[in-house]
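Deliverable D2.4 — example input (structure tokens):
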């Protein structure tokens, strides 16, 4: 009778959903604790990029960080600027241009970027399967961080500009452009810049922990959306752990693309995700 009276207000469905989420949370924690233990057992030079980067890369990384911080400050100083087709296209070319400049710089320095990024360490199929498992394991942490943000900031918090643009866009060509940016351009370019380059440089001189925390903070801040800061910080941390564990940037790229794909599907078909 006592058990029945306790669970009656929740309903059987809510109880099973809570138990499922709790088991999911414990399973995800087990996966990432195992990853942390494995990476701690390895030598500090397990990632080739972190072992190889030197002073010239530090200068470039510092310049890139300053540029990102200035961009963040400018976005908060002018929040009324609306995201449209022109701004989106400019952002695509800007991000790709930065990636190409850094990649060319590393090539001029004599680095094999593909080998440093771990492209040859695993095939696409293994990277995809690893990305799916690690993203599923990270999902309860991301969801919990998002729930906490909603409790602190209110459930009516605004959404990111690109999300608002996708939801409100009546034109198919604009939605295709956003999908291309979110699923292809952003995962590849952001993981190259944040996980491969910036994390690799900071990790080389400050260690894994400082590299992970600073990288996740910058990754979350650069999206310039306060309600999403906590879940993006968790997401960026999971991306970094995935890169550290696998030694291949393909894994966080896959996780990033899958995360953005699921987010866009949820926006396109809200009735499927309304519960």
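Example output (designed residues):
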């Amino acid at each position: 009778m006592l058990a029945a009276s306790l669970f009656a207000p929740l309903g059987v469905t809510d109880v099973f959903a809570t138990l499922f989420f709790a088991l999911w949370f414990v399973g995800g924690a087990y996966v990432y604790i195992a990853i942390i233990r494995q990476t701690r057992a390895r030598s500090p030079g397990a990632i080739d990029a972190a072992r190889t980067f030197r002073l010239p890369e530090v200068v470039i990384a510092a310049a890139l960080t300053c540029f990102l911080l200035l961009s963040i400050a400018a976005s908060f100083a002018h929040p009324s600027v609306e995201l449209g087709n022109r701004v989106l296209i400019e952002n695509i070319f800007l991000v790709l241009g930065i990636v190409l400049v850094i990649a060319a710089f590393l090539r001029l320095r004599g680095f094999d970027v593909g080998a440093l990024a771990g492209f040859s360490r695993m095939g696409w199929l293994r990277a995809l399967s690893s990305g799916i498992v690690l993203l599923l394991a990270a999902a309860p942490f991301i969801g919990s961080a998002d729930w906490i943000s909603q409790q602190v900031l209110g459930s009516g918090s605004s959404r990111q500009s690109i999300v608002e643009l996708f939801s409100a866009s009546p034109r198919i060509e604009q939605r295709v452009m956003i999908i291309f940016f979110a699923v292809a351009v952003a995962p590849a370019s952001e993981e190259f810049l944040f996980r491969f380059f910036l994390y690799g440089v900071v990790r080389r001189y400050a260690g894994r922990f400082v590299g992970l925390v600073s990288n996740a903070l910058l990754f979350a801040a650069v999206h310039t959306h306060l309600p999403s800061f906590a879940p993006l910080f968790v997401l960026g941390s999971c991306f970094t752990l995935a890169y550290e564990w696998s030694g291949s940037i393909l894994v966080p790229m896959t996780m990033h693309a899958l995360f953005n794909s699921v987010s866009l599907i949820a926006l396109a078909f809200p009735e499927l995700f309304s519960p």
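The mean pLDDT is 85.
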